[in-house]
Amino acid sequence: MASKRKYKGIDQLSKRDKIVVSLMVIVPTLLVLWLVWFPAVGTVLLSFTNWDGIGPLSGIKPVGLQNYIDIATIYPPFWPAIQHNLIWLAVLFFIATPLGILFAVLVDRGVSGTRFYQTSIYLPVVLSLALIGFIWQLIYSRDQGLLNAITGGTTDWYGDPDVNLWAVLVAASWRHAGYIMLLYLAGLKGVDPSLREAAKIDGASETTTFFRVILPVMRPINIIVIVVTFIESLRAFDIVWVINKGRNGLELISALVTQNVVGEASRIGFGSALATIMLLISSVLVVIYLRIAMKED
Amino acid sequence: MTRPSSEAEYLARMVPPSVRGVDRRTLLRGALGVGALIGAGTLASCGSSSDSGAGVPTGAVSGTVTVGSNQSDAVPKAAVQSYMDAFAKANPGTTVKINTVDHNSFQENINNYLQGSPDDVFTWFAGYRMQFFAEKGLVGDISDVWKNMPGMGDAMKKASTGADGKQYFVPITNYPWAVFYRKSLFADKGYEVPKTLDDLKTLGAKMQKDGIAPIAFGDKDGWPAMGTFDQLNLRINGYDFHVSLMAGKEAWTDPKVKKVFDTWAGILPLHQPDSLGRTWQEAAQSLQQKKSGMYVLGSFLAQQFAKGAEQDDLDFFAFPEIDSTIGTDAVEAPIDGYMMSARPKNEAAAKKLLQYISQPEAQLLALKADPSVIATNSNADTSGYTALQKKSAEFVKSAKSITQFMDRDTRPDFASTVMIPAIQEFIKNPSDIDGLTTKIEAQKKSIFGS
């Protein structure tokens, strides 16, 4: 008699269940199609046109690869932007992220006043963009800034294209480190304390314990941290936009896309080509991440 | 885990002006003006060429008229409210509904706004972009309103006319660009207002000896230096060439353009160094503190000076003559005003409102918000003007031709994505003019050719 209860596929579901299941599948699918795939494909298609954002879609003229050719050959900000994105990635990866992890470990060890440190390091992440722009303007302004007032220098922190990227990276790292700290701290809190005790009993030093025991246990968090770092450096945008709209030494791909698409400029086709390039670069990362994630399972 | 940082992806338009470095548009656009001045003597009478239909209602209008305003700052917003209220009061049965949008958002979303369901009347500026909207049929023909605009001179009419010869725009206020200085500084040090480029260089050398930066300069936001280019081009090549260059009809590799950059390179050492990290406000403050001697900017610079004695100490002169055959009679004086959407819901009231805006009563109310601009109607009573306003009015009136500003006289995509980086590049490296103009020309061809 038990065989009667055997699952016989979807036919066995009641009508109501079927409706519920279909809705649960269809609604999210449509949302993803509408909000993710439609704009993405639309962007790629528009990148082969010179649409200016005005008039019916039928008025769009295809221009083939012209936008891409222009970007690579006669658009001066493009190559600096690629270079800056790479520098951004390197700095976040080798400096800001390790710093955030270090903060997390220190805070986790329960230094006195932990809560205070935790809050102050995380604060930059919570502050609004407007405030961040304001804070760093106060510090970096050439004529009226704190930094030059203290050192008596005349360095043009925001205006000198050889210096401003690094000045901004300090600000970006300031935020990024706090963010990574919080992520990592959450992970550390979840590590079974008995592992540490066992390591201690075996005579391992603090450092050894961290690198040999804690770090491997934290693998999932490590991957998230790496992915977050990559994503943050690719979509880096807000700080440079507040400072000078991503010009003069602060070119980033995301800022170029915005300059061209948003606003009066309305070079939708050209901007879409830049966005498509950004999409391609991001896809490489997504593929790598998915491969790692799938392997885990 | 939630990711608070994603909240940070705000666009800069959400940043308050105090942080962003307020730009002239935020403060001025739109608002106010007085004007006119231009060509006041000659007149409005010639404006009978237009031929449109309905005509401005002379009788009563009623219903609601909607107004899209980019005057989001408190003071100009109140000014808009005051003259809209005055209009409603004068036309019983009419209500004016003002939809105020953050200034930058308004500007950035203008394309979508006009293609959606725009308000009957909305704020905009004279220039290329205005004509472009007209050409695309996104705005309404108001030639009939122009038949009844006492006090609006020929120059104003020309600035309001699209490529098809019809009018699409009603000016309210404008303001001149010139070389500003403090009278007290010039008096103390015995400086004289330079008449020619050579005078300017001599004066600059003197100021440098006195430990003063001759010309204040800040181009962090990218647009202020466009004003210097405009002045030089108007003085070296004249109005016609400038307009034609802005319209994409001349080559940027033309020796005439190279001469502009060359001349600029010659006086660049007189400018404040490290200008790319400085906002125009900071540069204006250096003028105010007498750390610099002169500043090529629009009269909105007065906003950085305290009202009263300090503003009275501020004076200006036309950018010096470079070529005596060209002279100095071209003036850059951007005009702010209103347009009507292509299919207004209440056309009669919209036209009556536009007519009202062209008249002194509305314009003087607008001026109250920002005394650094002037009314565009030549009948406006100037007795309440500050010394600077009076001089601005005279200056604009004396001009033989008037330009708007690079980013209003040419395609906005060309101005913002090509010229801003190009001029900043020039400031960083003034020696490679050939390379620079070649790059500009290549991009110009691509943009204007599309």
From TrEMBL, chain A:
Subcellular location, principal: membrane
Keywords for the protein's UniProt record, in alphabetical order: Cell membrane, Membrane, Transmembrane, Transmembrane helix, Transport
Protein name: Carbohydrate ABC transporter membrane protein 1 (CUT1 family)
Pfam family, one: BPD_transp_1
Compartments (UniProt record): Cell membrane
Alphabetical GO biological process terms: transmembrane transport
Segments passing through the bilayer: 20-40, 86-107, 119-139, 165-186, 268-290
TrEMBL record, chain B:
InterPro entries: Bact_solute-bd_prot1, SBP, TAT_signal
Domain of life from the UniProt record: Bacteria
Gene3D superfamilies found in the cross-reference section: Periplasmic binding protein-like II (3.40.190.10)
Pfam hit, one: SBP_bac_1
Protein name: Carbohydrate ABC transporter substrate-binding protein (CUT1 family)
Organism, scientific name: Humibacillus xanthopallidus
